[in-house]
Specification:
The chain contains 14 helices and 12 strands. It has about 450 residues and is α/β, with parallel strands linked by helices. The strands form 2 sheets. Strands 5-6-8-7-9-12-10-11 form an 8-stranded mixed beta sheet, sandwiched between helices. Bound molecules: zinc ion (ZN). Zinc ion binds next to loops.
């Protein structure tokens, strides 16, 4: 299965080569300089150290609680202040400007010679265009979803991949709630690309597409993402005022464990769903009556986080979110040996407002947050495909379990339906729960053959 992603990389996408020779960010916003800045990592950080890092630098992690390892970007001159506090730290990146400038120079030039979509990071516009490309590949199974509009008026878009004529449960995938996590839209787009292109050629992907409706929203925070390209590489929040941390803005124990200062990286907004991006996602989710699973992709840690972040209590699913997070972590790790572990966030400090907690409490669907590999937001483009490959394995693992648990199974009774008129009891739609097993299998075979013929 994993070789397939590599194969796809060498499968030249001619239209994209024609239009994507250069990356454009199209903004005149001033660019933040990281000259003379370093990345420090402080293990077992104390409160005073965290306060100093918060005041002088940019925190890089998802939570900053005493006792945890804290990473931050800091002017080199402020290292003396850390010394005064007696903080044990190490400099993980000695020249942040060099790292950011190298990435910017590479992306401003011609795309790599491979010229394929997953050979380097993509702007929001390029992601939008590729969603349309995918919808054009298989218009029967793939449709574009307009989720809503961001604070600055950008479209939030996604794709739905579903098999026509089915009534399958829904698995929702989101990426890029946090702007600087550029590997997140690449991985979520890779999942979409694989489901669209390999549904007829790879049995494991065919099983997922046959058994689930998959909705993928690769960029929940398009304004922040554009700002991180144009102006401030390590920007995390949306672009409303000083910015709101979208993954603290959902209506579940809102405000618990978050910072009340609007300038803070984990500022939760003025109230639950105060931001147009999270409100749009809330409305999308409310429109999915058969939602059974949700995975939200972030970076970077190498972990599968399971609910809840806001409480230590187990929900209606008992320990299943943890057990599945452990097996998903193992599936991801097995592909390239990149270590991933299952973790419950908020262990040291309850945190409210997370998307996965909202989905599980409000919609009774299993939910996880994947923190993709590594510890950095600026990562080499060569890591995109391996990160895709290992997370495809984790995704398929969860999808298979959801299908086994919630999938619509064909009626095992081969007795002919005494009322063969499909319009009389199913509204004319031959759903899986109504079709007898043999008929259903034949229907699926015909659909697959027609799809293959149309594509060849
Ligand atoms: Zn994040």
């Amino acid at each position: 299965m994993y070789a397939r992603v590599v194969i796809r990389v060498v499968r030249v996408l001619v239209p994209l080569m024609l239009v994507c020779a250069m990356h454009t960010v199209g903004s005149a916003a001033p660019r933040r300089s990281y000259a003379n800045h370093v990345v420090v990592r402080v293990p077992a950080a104390k409160s005073a150290t965290i306060a100093l890092l918060r005041q002088r630098g940019v925190l890089l992690g998802h939570g900053a609680v005493p006792g945890a390892t804290i990473s931050a970007i800091l002017p080199r001159t402020n290292l003396a202040d850390l010394d005064k506090l007696g903080a044990a730290y190490h400099v993980a990146v000695a020249d942040v400007a060099a790292v950011v400038d190298a990435e910017r120079s590479r992306l401003a030039g011609p795309t790599s010679q491979l010229g394929t979509w997953f050979s380097d990071f993509k702007t929001g516009d390029e992601i939008d265009a590729y969603l349309d490309t995918l919808a054009g590949v298989d218009s029967d199974r793939v449709s574009i979803i307009d989720v809503g509009t961001s604070f600055e008026g950008r479209r939030i878009r996604g794709v739905r991949i579903s098999t026509p004529g089915t009534n399958n449960p829904t698995l929702l995938i989101t990426g890029t709630q946090h702007a600087r996590e550029w590997i997140s839209p690449m991985v979520t787009m890779c999942l979409a690309d694989t489901l669209v292109r390999d549904a007829d050629s790879d049995p494991s992907i065919a099983a997922v597409v046959a058994g689930l409706d998959v909705i993928i929203v690769p960029v929940v925070n398009p304004d922040g993402y554009a700002f991180s390209w144009a102006s401030e590489r390590f920007w995390r929040k949306n672009r409303n005022g000083s910015g709101v941390d979208l993954n603290r803005n959902w209506d579940v124990s809102w405000g618990v464990g978050t910072n009340e200062l609007p300038q803070a990286n984990d500022y939760a907004g003025t109230g639950p769903f105060s931001e147009p991006e999270t409100a749009a996602m809330r409305d999308l989710i409310a429109s999915l009556p058969n939602l059974v699973g949700y995975i939200d992709y972030h970076s970077a840690l190498g972990a599968v986080l399971y609910p809840f972040a806001y409480t230590t209590e187990l929900g209606s699913f008992g320990d299943r979110p943890q057990v599945w997070a452990e097996s998903m972590s193992a599936a991801i790790t097995a592909v390239h040996g990149e270590p991933h572990q299952a973790l419950r966030p908020g262990q040291n400090s309850p945190t409210g407002g997370l998307a996965m907690d909202y989905v599980m409490t409000s919609h009774d669907a299993l939910a996880w947050t994947v923190e993709l590999r590594g510890m950095d937001f600026v990562v080499p483009p060569e890591s995109i495909v391996p990160t895709c490959e290992e997370n495809l394995a984790g995704f398929v693992h969860i999808a298979d379990q959801l299908i086994a648990e919630y999938g619509v199974t064909p009626d095992p009774d081969p007795t002919p339906d005494p009322d063969p008129d499909p319009g009389s009891d199913s509204g004319g739609c031959a759903t899986a729960s109504h079709a007898p097993g043999a008929t259903w299998a034949l229907l699926m075979l015909i659909v697959a053959l027609l799809a293959r013929r149309r594509r060849s």
